């Protein structure tokens, strides 16, 4: 019977062309999702959809499932047979084309929630930062997908803070949400929700949900997902912990859903939790969930197995299909959305388990970093490997203040240049050291690691650099939208003599990884920020 259903859906998919109407967008009002066309409530019936290897080539660290049109065509009938209306993808390649897959998903009635990060560009819980490179990555994804009406929303992070020891990472994720929302608005794109996906840590789950849901509309998350694996095997609404979680999230002012679920400690998974999730005890608080996951891999969470491009459904697929087709959740109307569900939520107080500051990092601005870099006399030499930056940082920051480039998500103190590249940041503190030593040419050498250049400050840079101050700890209004005039006129230049001919050129165009994160030790800060991290935090599946 199931095979007949999949075959019928597959044949039907062949006759769905571009003439089919686009899916209506999904709106957020209060703590629920609604169809934009008729105002009826939208429940997520989702499946996580990303394999460890598909269209990867040498040097790539992840596949992009939405860039593989053949695989999409192969898999969509199986997703449709599960009554799937949402897939979640964890990493996207912005250099590839996604048109075929996105149009096929749209025709099949399937929306997409996409993570904005990718393995090499994500907010690292151990050394959190919100940098120019990260900002550019996130908005590149937005630029690529904003035109598809079946993009339900974006995740700005996944399990970045995962216990009480790294709550200082959450301000950086919330800053990403703020800046992506503003970017969407400034570009005149449709209002695409931006949210966060958390883990289920007993100490942080409640304050973290409140943290991302609190504040003004332009700062808070638009929705909140929690990766929930509490219901294992045969259980109940009460015994599983679902009753407690529902009570804890009952006052959340934004939509909440399970961004992953499906414990596999007992196999096969019979998905008895589905009837509870979409039942009357939970639907006033939860908007459905996303089953982890479509592809069978070594972690044994798959609904199907794909071998030599052939799909075989597994036992979990049949059990989930049976459960999801038996749900009949109550449906609210946008016209009756509770005013209490749209009220502002107080941000959580700091305490033993929650130490995230409500003050957020500044919006990354590449123009400001360029202004700062050009204004310096002493800079890091262009031939210095970024792996060697740590030694220079450790030495210089032991003598001069490096507050202008550091960021602390616990105290809420962020240097004006904390989002700049490591090269620009190192040049900034080398120049501070150079000036502190009386601008002696010997103070800008470091065994050839630093060199002198002719400092240039454009007129459009002067006022903002002055407001920020020489140590980079001040602030200036309008920095987030600050741009450098393309005209070269009106600039001032100061030269610095050098004891050698090698001391008069460098470049600030080289970018590298994430910038400075927050930590108690400067040595740890710079070590964490500029070496390759073996395991990147905040990504919800194993990358090849």
From TrEMBL:
Gene3D superfamilies tied to this protein: 1.20.58.1040, Glycosidases (3.20.20.80)
SMART domains referenced in this protein's UniProt entry, alphabetically: X8
Enzyme class, UniProt record, top EC level: transferase
Annotated GO MF terms: 1,3-beta-glucanosyltransferase activity
Listed transmembrane segments: 525-543
Functional summary from the UniProt entry: Splits internally a 1,3-beta-glucan molecule and transfers the newly generated reducing end (the donor) to the non-reducing end of another 1,3-beta-glucan molecule (the acceptor) forming a 1,3-beta linkage, resulting in the elongation of 1,3-beta-glucan chains in the cell wall.
Protein name as catalogued: 1,3-beta-glucanosyltransferase
Organism: Lachancea fermentati
The organism's taxonomic lineage, starting at the top: Eukaryota, Fungi, Dikarya, Ascomycota, Saccharomycotina
